[in-house]
Amino acid sequence: MARTLCRIFKGCQSICSLPLMKTRLHPSASVLLRTVCVRRMLTLPFRFSPKAQDFSLPNSSWGAEMRQLYEHYNSQCEEEMKGEEKQDWAWKRVPSYNRTLKHATGGVYLSKIYQSKARFFTRNIKEPGAAFEYVLFVSKDEQKCVCIFQAGHLLEGPQGYVHGGAIATMIDTVTVTHASVLTLLIMTANLNINYRRPIPLGSTVLIDSSLNKTEGRKVLISCKVTSTDGSKLHTEATALFVVSRLLGG
Ligand SMILES: CCCCCCCCCCCCCCCC(=O)SCCNC(=O)CCNC(=O)[C@H](O)C(C)(C)COP(=O)(O)OP(=O)(O)OC[C@H]1O[C@@H](n2cnc3c(N)ncnc32)[C@H](O)[C@@H]1OP(=O)(O)O
Questions:
Q1: Domain that holds residue 136
Q2: Which of 16, 117, 132, 249 has the fewest CB atoms within 10 Å, measured from its CB?
Q3: Cα–Cα distance between 59 and 63 in angstroms, integer?
Q4: How many domains does the structure of the chain reveal?
Q5: Mutation probe of ligand 1 site: the residue of 77, 132, 242, 247 with most atoms within 8 A of C-beta
Q6: Angle at 99 between CA 94 and CA 105, to 5 degrees
Q7: Which of the four pLDDT bands, split at 50, 70 and 90, describes residue 83?
Q8: Residue 248 lies in a domain
Q9: Phi-psi region of 175 (alpha: psi -120 to 50; beta: other; left: phi over 0)
């Protein structure tokens, strides 16, 4: 914190002491100065970015199947926005950010000093489509969650197929999001996975989760990974989440 403040102070000093400030600036110098100022501003400890990138929106790496399914679920979300008083909606899209903290703040990046290098595990690869491409929708009664997942080439396990750990990651991500809709401050306590059929790299699959039960601090969720038409079962799992005392629950 002290180092950051010191850097800002030095930054201001160096900008103000620029000789160019006293004269009329050449356009290229003015661009340079603006760049320096913006860079210095970006080192401020309480930097607010009004629009964080939402990684669950379509990008150029999405295949036809992924887009089609996205449009299918998203169109059912839109009904809510058309919003006559009692207009019903079936699904809600869950935004997805590159830092865990942003999920708690609805996308607002609070401070650079918190975990400046930490990134949310599934959203830390810059090349779109290279690893985890996914979007999650939750149903209106919050008893169901569906994820459309396109597995990129960096997730290879066996030749041409998705790594079991990557599948587990997605199952954890989907079920924890589902459980988070029901209760906050949870930790995965147990994840039980049966791998039935490998998932080809580059393919799109559906990950469906359903609430089994809640019991005191425990939330039990089951989950299935299938082909997009539902005809092939790739993986099935159950997950137990416990409201964590450590996280303040
Ligand atoms: C719309 C908005 C949504 C947006 C939303 C986006 C979300 C996007 C960011 C999220 C972020 C990603 C996060 C990913 C999810 C992780 O990856 S979490 C990380 C992996 N998990 C861990 O590290 C957990 C480590 N373990 C622990 O911290 C603790 O053991 C636990 C799990 C909190 C439980 O500890 P505890 O609170 O002391 O629990 P304890 O009192 O012993 O047991 C409570 C009950 O649970 C049972 N239990 C505890 N552990 C187990 C177990 N392993 N097996 C079976 N039963 C168990 C006990 O038997 C007990 O049962 P009852 O006696 O009450 O019937």
A1: 64-96+120-243
A2: 117
A3: 9
A4: 2
A5: 242
A6: 65
A7: low
A8: no
A9: alpha
pLDDT category of residue 103 using cuts at 50, 70 and 90: confident
Indicate whether 170 and 215 sit together in one domain: yes
Residue nearest to atom 26 of ligand 1 (CA): 189
Query: From ligand 1's centre to the CA of 175, what distance in Å?
Result: 12
In a domain, 92, yes or no: yes
Protein residue with least CA distance to atom 11, ligand 1: 100
**Mean pLDDT score of the chain, rounded to an integer?**
79
Nearest CA to ligand 1 atom 33: 244
Tokens at 246, concatenated: 């450590």
| pLDDT, position 226 | 98
Ligand 1 atom with the shortest distance to the CA of 100:
9
CA 214 centroid distance within chain: 25
Read off the pLDDT of residues 165-185 as tens digits, 9 standing for 90 and up: 999 999 999 999 999 988 888
Both 175 and 80 in a single domain? Answer: yes
Structure tokens at 28: 């290229």
Give me the mean pLDDT over the 121-149 stretch. 93
Which residue among 98, 135, 187 has the greatest number of ligand 1 atoms within 8 angstroms of its CB, and so is best to mutate? 187
- Whether residues 128 and 83 share a domain: the answer is yes
Residue nearest to ligand 1 atom 35, measured at CA: 244
